[in-house]
Amino acid sequence: MRLLPGRSRDWPVSPAGQIPAGRVELRPLGLHDEHRFMALRLLNAAWLQPWDATTPENPDPRDSAGSFRQMARALNRSARAGSHLPWLIWFTPAGEHPRLVGQLTVGPVIGGSARTTSLGYWLDEGHAGQGITPMAVALAVDHLFFHRGLHRVEIAVRPENAPSLRVVEKLGFREEGLRLRFLHIHGAWRDHRCFALTREEIGAGLVARCRG
């Protein structure tokens, strides 16, 4: 078991290779994903805009090939350093080839006596409501607890984001409270509801819970 943070020589890693999840898979984000990623973001621009992270200095970021390459390089440096795990969500419809449908990123990872992290995600609008996001989150959480030695995982959700609220409810995340003006989203500081799980709360794991 490799603990994080710290030099992570086993990156890139796909947790689906360790915990089979059927038609949903997490694959490490790479520069070769640029064209698929950019096409999917363009297709979902209006769908994702209300939930996109921004900064006070850049309240209206625009997706571009340059920004993707910058993001991919930065996240993979962080992954090799053990502070982030950047994955893309892939889904295989019955009788078809796998297709890119979203993104899930873990981090920053805090080690020591905390052993905690947070995760965020987005999904293609055309694949929403099919149970893909809960399974992707379940794969990531099980990997973090069973293979990375973490103790706590947190997800922060805007109160208006009903689909994400359904994800944490389905997986049994425990609500810990409201964080006022917690993150800069869509051009302003937004309140978030905070949900978390610890290793003791998941039993045989979230993949098993999701399938049940």
UniProtKB/TrEMBL annotation:
It comes from the Bacteria. The keyword ATP-binding does not apply. Keywords: Acyltransferase, Transferase. Residues 38-200 form the N-acetyltransferase domain. It is an enzyme of class 2 (transferase). The keyword Membrane does not apply. Gene3D superfamilies: 3.40.630.30. Its EC number is 2.3.1.267. GO terms for cellular component: cytoplasm. One of its GO terms (molecular function) is protein-N-terminal-alanine acetyltransferase activity. Belongs to the acetyltransferase family. RimJ subfamily. This is GNAT family acetyltransferase. The lineage of its organism: Bacteria, Bacillati, Actinomycetota, Actinomycetes, Micrococcales.
